[in-house]
Design brief:
alpha/beta; Rossmann fold; three-stranded parallel sheet; 14 strands; 33% helix; binds uracil; glycosyltransferase; uracil phosphoribosyltransferase activity; EC 2.4.2.9
Length: 211
């Protein structure tokens, strides 16, 4: 559909996504599995981090071995559901910096309204990976990416769990330079902006709240 969308079609991810889609999956299990999927998706999102050889001694020999060059990472969670992915990403890269962007969807217009914004300094020197489980209309992700670019982010990616074609298209139109990494591209949005078949409201599933 677009050059900028990568669907990570790994059996473990697809298996775990099925658990997440199942409405019978209880909150604690949902949270745990989302955290695991975040680690797997995070491997794809970070696959081009630069490496440089360093010299180390194994118990047997001295070798040149690849080591992360120290490109700084910043994960940005789009509140509140993004936090469900953030936990797994921080398991993967505990030293990463973290930003938070609070956006909520106006239920009538589906527009993204910003209510919180806090990011680390020097975003321009970091690989910034913003996360939100659902790419639905794209309005929230578009607004968040615009804000992050205004704060200096130059190398930006968006990692989600489930994307709708409408959201991917809208996001790609405004931010063609931002790769999107997702576990699935679903069929469509419904009239309320929910992804079909989707997994429901990700925030409610993570935190056990209701609509
Ligand atoms: N946000 C969600 O949590 N779920 C959807 O299906 C769409 C947007």
């Amino acid at each position: 559909m677009t050059d900028n969308l990568t669907i990570v079609d790994h059996p473990l991810i697809q298996h775990k996504l099925t658990i997440l889609r199942n409405k019978e999956t209880p909150t604690a299990h949902f949270r745990q599995v989302l955290r695991e999927v975040a680690i797997l998706l995070g491997c794809e999102a970070t696959k081009d981090l630069p490496l440089a050889d360093v010299t180390i001694d194994t118990p047997l020999e001295t070798i040149q071995s690849p080591y992360l060059e120290g490109k700084k990472i910043c994960f940005v969670s789009i509140l509140r559901a993004g936090n469900g992915l953030l936990d797994g990403l921080l398991d993967l890269i505990p030293s990463a910096r973290v930003g938070h962007v609070g956006m909520y969807r106006d239920h009538d217009t589906l527009e993204a309204i910003r209510y919180y914004y806090r990011t680390p300094d020097e975003l321009d020197g970091r690989q910034v990976i913003m996360v939100d489980p659902m790419l639905a209309t794209g309005n929230t992700a578009i607004a968040a990416a615009t804000e992050l670019k205004k704060s200096g982010a130059k190398s930006l990616k968006f990692m989600c769990l489930v994307a709708a074609p409408e959201g991917v298209q809208a996001f790609n139109k405004v931010h063609p330079d931002v790769p999107v990494i997702s576990a699935a591209l679903d069929r469509q949005l419904n009239e309320r902006g929910y992804i079909l078949p989707g997994l429901g409201d990700a925030g409610d599933r993570i935190y056990g709240t209701k609509g």
